[in-house]
Design brief:
five-stranded antiparallel β-sheet, Cytochrome Bc1 Complex, Chain D, domain 2, 3 domains, alpha+beta, 272 residues, SH3 type barrels, 15% strand
Length: 272
């Protein structure tokens, strides 16, 4: 009886594994066509690829990371199409021959968005002009580092665009308070002698506050010596770039971030 139960359990596991790694029915593959290529690509990826490679392409128990690995990012669209349609012999990657070429291309476009590579096609900006804006007009380098240069109170943006789409980058620039991480909110303190300090709380407990101001200085403050502590629901980052920068300047800035993410810190020149 125990052997029969064990055999039945193994058969059920094999059946489940076959469902996880096998191509979905053609009807399910085609159901997203009416919604457009981008939506279709995401839908097929979720139903066909995510079980092994993860929803974000970052890898899982049954499949490798295909969104962050450089060797995968460097593969051409043609090479990826051949892998999806023909599989990889000797590995767990099956052939998805029932997917049409247009469907595979939609999946590849979605994968490129996960890799951050869709940004290049979405933005027609000048990365060198964007570099000048980053270190000049926009003042981004006062807080952010990029390519080994700039400030350090905010995040290093050298590889930020490798996992973010052009639209996500643009939205982060023009609307920095959307979905703001509480740890990145602005903190304003007033000391007992009336001095005002503005920055980000790096550490805090019931008795002390470690505040980093825009110039990078860390201030260890005893709360008993503070007149007030104000936690503001906004980022230190200016929220007026949509009006301060033109549409083209925003495109240039995004292109710069995309370029350094792919070019090891140096903006790549636009092709002639």
């Amino acid at each position: 009886m125990a052997r029969k139960l064990l055999r039945f359990s193994m058969l059920m596991l094999l059946a489940y594994a076959g469902q996880v790694c096998a191509p979905p029915p053609l009807q399910a593959q085609q159901s997203g066509k009416a919604a457009g290529g981008a939506v279709e690509g995401k839908q097929i990826f979720i139903t066909t690829c995510a079980a092994c490679h993860g929803l974000d392409g970052g890898g899982g128990e049954h499949g490798p990371d295909i969104s962050h690995r450089r060797e995968v990012q460097r593969l051409s669209d043609k090479a990826l199409l051949q892998i999806v349609q023909g599989g990889v012999p000797g590995t767990g990657m099956p052939a998805f021959g029932s997917l049409g070429a247009d469907q595979v291309k939609a999946v590849i476009r979605y994968l490129r968005s996960l890799q951050g590579q869709a940004s290049a096609a979405e933005v027609s900006g000048d990365p060198r002009h964007g570099q000048a804006i980053f270190f000049g007009k926009a003042g981004c380098s006062q807080c952010h580092m990029a390519g080994g240069e700039g400030g350090f109170i905010a995040s290093d943006l050298s590889s930020y665009a490798s996992t973010s789409s052009a639209d996500d980058i643009r939205n982060a620039i023009t609307d920095p308070n959307r979905n703001l991480n509480p740890r990145k909110r602005t903190v304003v303190v007033t000391t007992a002698d009336g001095q005002t300090l503005t920055g980000i709380a790096r550490n805090e407990d019931n008795f002390t506050l470690q505040l980093q101001t825009i110039d990078g200085t860390l201030h260890l403050l005893a709360k008993t010596e503070l007149r007030s502590i104000e936690y503001q629901p906004r980022s230190l980052m200016p929220d007026d770039y949509a009006s301060r920068l033109s549409r083209q300047e925003l495109d240039d800035l995004v292109s710069y971030l995309v370029s350094i993410a792919r070019g090891n810190g140096k903006p790549q020149a636009e092709p002639e």
